[in-house]
């Protein structure tokens, strides 16, 4: 049973380009969480999704950022018109249900904006 | 004041020493995670606790729900234990929102 898969591991984008980060949860997991870790800072919640639903996006910047978790396929975190301040590690975690279930983390995508 | 705090922020230990990292929180929780992150690496969940104590190898985690406090202990520390240790709580909201502590950076010197 493969763990949470994130790709790419490293992503370099120029300012103004779009970044697409993918997260395939563990098999059987229908809950996906995205977190961001800025350089020298701790992890911060961004968004929580279930299949085809955004449950909580209170941690997402109001502009340029969006997330989806379609019925089929991975969850996508999309950042439009990237800026240098978007450079960070983006982690995805999944769980089979919510209350009381363990979280399983991916290895993260390290985004560098040049 | 942060909802989840950890101490110490940084810790340097000699190989073989007994290490304790503390976590205190101010919100109601359904569970608490201890996570490990190596430099440039992914995040590994070490423990999930809702009460009492858990042990895995040289690692021990305890939680006191009444005092809103948890500790992570490492016995006979080793340089490969060098990492950032993060306390994360699952809050009692309509769903399990996770709040992370700032992390404790541990360096174990041979």
What layout of secondary structure does this protein have?
The complex is a heterodimer of chains A (114) and B (110).
Chain A: E1 5-7, E2 10-13, E3 19-24, E4 31-37, E5 43-50, E6 53-56, E7 65-68, E8 75-79, E9 88-95, E10 104-105, E11 109-113
Parallel strand pairs in A: 2-11
Antiparallel strand pairs in A: 1-3, 3-8, 4-5, 4-9, 5-6, 7-8, 9-10, 9-11
Chain B: E1 4-7, E2 10-14, E3 19-25, E4 29-37, E5 43-49, E6 52-56, E7 59-64, E8 69-74, E9 83-91, E10 98-100, E11 104-109
Parallel strand pairs in B: 2-11
Antiparallel strand pairs in B: 1-3, 3-8, 4-5, 4-9, 6-7, 7-8, 9-10, 9-11
Features:
heterodimer; A: 114 residues; mainly beta; 49% strand; B: 110 residues; 6-stranded mixed β-sheet; 5-stranded antiparallel β-sheet; 0% helix
Question: How would you describe the overall organization of this protein?
Answer:
The complex is a heterodimer of chains A (114) and B (110). Chain A has 114 residues and is mainly β. Chain A has strands at residues 5-7, 10-13, 19-24, 31-37, 43-50, 53-56, 65-68, 75-79, 88-95, 104-105, 109-113. Chain B is 0% helix and 61% strand. In chain B, strands 2, 4, 5, 9, 10 and 11 form a six-stranded mixed β-sheet that branches. A five-stranded antiparallel β-sheet of chain B has the order 1-3-8-7-6, with no helix packed on it. In chain B, a hairpin with a 6-residue loop joins strand 9 (83-91) and strand 10 (98-100). The interface between A and B is medium-sized, with 23 and 24 residues.
Task: Give a concise summary.
By secondary structure, chain A is mainly β. Chain A has no helices and eleven strands. Helix content of chain A is 0%, strand content 49%.
Low-confidence stretches of chain B: none
Radius of gyration of chain B: 13 Å
- H-E order of chain A: EEEEEEEEEEE
> Roughly what fraction of the amino acids of chain B lie in strands?
over 45%
Strand content of chain A: over 45%
Order of helices and strands of chain B: EEEEEEEEEEE
The assigned structural class of chain B equals: mainly beta
Shape of chain A: globular
Low-confidence stretches of chain A: none
Largest sheet of chain B: 6 strands, mixed
User: Helix content range of the residues of chain B, please?
Assistant: under 10%
Task: Give the biggest sheet of chain A.
Answer: 7 strands, mixed
């Amino acid at each position: 049973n493969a763990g949470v898969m994130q790709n790419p591991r490293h992503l370099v984008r120029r300012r103004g380009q779009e970044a697409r980060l993918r997260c395939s949860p563990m098999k059987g997991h229908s809950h996906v969480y995205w977190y961001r870790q800025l350089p020298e800072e701790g992890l911060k919640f961004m968004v929580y999704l279930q299949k085809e639903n955004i449950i909580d996006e209170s941690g997402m910047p109001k502009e340029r950022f969006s997330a989806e978790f379609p019925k089929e396929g991975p969850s996508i975190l999309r950042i439009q018109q990237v800026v240098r301040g978007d450079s960070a590690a983006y982690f995805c975690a999944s769980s089979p249900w919510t209350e009381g279930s363990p979280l399983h983390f991916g290895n993260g995508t390290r985004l560098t904006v040049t | 004041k942060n909802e989840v705090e950890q101490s110490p922020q940084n810790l340097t230990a000699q190989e073989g020493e007994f290490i304790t990292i503390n976590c205190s929180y101010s919100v109601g929780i359904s569970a608490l995670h201890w996570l490990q992150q190596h430099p440039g690496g992914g995040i590994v969940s070490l423990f999930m606790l809702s009460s009492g104590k858990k042990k895995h190898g040289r690692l021990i985690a305890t939680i006191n729900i009444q005092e809103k406090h948890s500790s992570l202990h490492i016995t006979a520390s080793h340089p490969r234990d060098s990492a950032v240790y993060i306390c994360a709580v699952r809050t009692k909201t309509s769903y399990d929102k996770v709040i992370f502590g700032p992390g404790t950076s541990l360096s174990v010197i041979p």
